[in-house]
Design brief:
This protein is mainly α. The chain has eleven helices and no strands.
Length: about 200
């Protein structure tokens, strides 16, 4: 009788263990997005994300052509063949990566890059481009974006307002600042990403 009880307990344990394993495996992969899902989520913004995210920067042979350009520029300047080739390289990159944790991290970076870009676009609609940059310049959290320009006499002068200082930047420089911001946000973990998006929203309130 005792033997039968032991056998029954072992059978139940093995059965539970087997039933839990697939669920655990699926839960680990639940955050992994396919290339088609990322493409669908980002749309044409994906090409700008490929250019800026370190893992896929090498997809672009002539990076200088796109330096300092706005996000929309990438989709407008790339022809159908170039877009197809970039998407092909993107899919191949994902298919060759066998580290599931790395794939989840990478897919999140692209999703967050596209989300951050959309959020910043919406925030900028509430004010001028220069006003938005001035708020970034004055903020404790995002002021670091202007470090490359802090040695300029105009930026060091107290006679000029923050708006005057950011207005002195070229179009390419101001677009590069925003691209750097978006990329920096995208490389963070989800909680840090959400916190910084909330900080951006607070700036304009």
């Amino acid at each position: 009788m005792r033997f039968l009880i032991i056998i029954s307990l072992v059978t139940i344990f093995v059965s539970c263990t087997r039933s839990d394993s697939p669920e655990t495996e699926l839960s680990n992969k639940s955050d992994l997005k396919s290339v088609s899902e990322i493409n669908r989520h980002c749309g044409d913004t994906l090409f700008a994300a490929m250019y800026h995210i370190p893992a896929t920067q090498d997809f672009f042979d002539n990076r200088a052509q796109f330096a300092g350009q706005p996000v929309d520029y990438f989709s407008e300047m790339l022809n159908a063949s170039q877009k197809e080739n970039l998407l092909k390289n993107f899919e191949q990159y994902f298919s060759q990566e066998d580290n599931n944790e790395r794939l989840v991290q990478l897919s999140n970076q692209f999703l967050q890059w596209c989300d951050a870009n959309e959020e910043i676009q919406q925030l900028q609609h509430q004010m001028s481009h220069e006003e938005f940059l001035a708020l970034l310049y004055d903020s404790e959290r995002f002021g670091y974006l202007f470090q490359p320009f802090n040695d300029r006499s105009l930026f060091q002068s107290k006679e000029y307002s923050s708006l005057d200082k950011v207005a002195s930047l070229s179009s390419a420089q101001s677009h590069q600042i925003l691209s750097t911001l978006i990329t920096d946000l995208s490389m963070q973990g989800q909680s840090e990403f959400e916190n910084d998006l909330n900080s951006l929203r607070t700036l304009i309130q």
